[in-house]
Amino acid sequence: EVQLQASGGGLVQAGGSLRLSCARSGSSLISPGIGWYRQAPGKEREGVSCISGYDGRTYYSDSVKGRFTISNDNAKNTFYLQMNNLTAADTAVYYCATVMLCTEYGGQMYTNNGKDAVWGQGTLVTVSS
Question: Counting Cβ atoms within 10 Å, is residue 43 exposed (0-12), middle (13-18) or buried (19+)?
Fold first, then answer.
């Protein structure tokens, strides 16, 4: 059974950077991709970025495109979200989760977590302005 452990959140000033990590443990018959999501207070959860488990392609929401980079280290079984030029609007709890589908429709990032999705616990990112 796959488990995800997210870490790396913290307090950073606007314009600063943080790198989130999502460590994957356990085994699975398939290798789903990973998505990063965030939920700000009073707002719905939104997809931020994902990396396809099929072809390694990466996708981003318009709000973070050009500032965030998703990557993975297969040797460490860990996925990363490098976040640069942070703004107060990026303040949220960030989650990583397995995705069965990570792609783009109509120019927008799209993910489908599937019925057996695994979610990591959230990590709080606070950006002070």
Answer: exposed
